[in-house]
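agent: user wants the structure for MarR family transcriptional regulator from Fervidibacillus halotolerans. delegating to structure tool.
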Amino acid sequence: MRSMNGQKERDGEISLKLFVVLSRAMQAIQKRVEANIKGFGLNLTEFAVLELLYHKGEQPIQKIGQKVLLASSSITYVVDKLEKKGYLVRQPCPNDRRVIYAVLTDEGKKMMEKIFPMHREAMMEILGGLTTEEKEWTIEKIKKLGLYAKKGESST
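agent: tool returned. relaying tokens verbatim.
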């Protein structure tokens, strides 16, 4: 019985340490990624929207928020800014007037064709502390952790 309590106590300490280590690592990575993206004249959310459109094609504005993990109230603001910069346009859906698509302009495509390879290189450098195999293992474990945490959301 005593060893069970000892194991539970150790697991509690390790769980707290893991949370701190993950949080600090994410802060450090986020800071470097934001600095990289700022060098392109964009903020993180603008880049995320452009990257989504660049890789997935036109998207309903209403759906962009959930795909780039941004509150729907902020999407209109980000889309407005990107439209003013000439990187995207709004296009009404021909079948449903309630749906508006965000579509990359030629200028937006050219810009992403130029900066995305540089961003990819920066990500490889920023995350260069792990080998490719370690990155694959880490992805698998963090996904598992996230899915487990998400399962618990409904019970809280």
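agent: one observation worth passing along. The mean pLDDT is 92.
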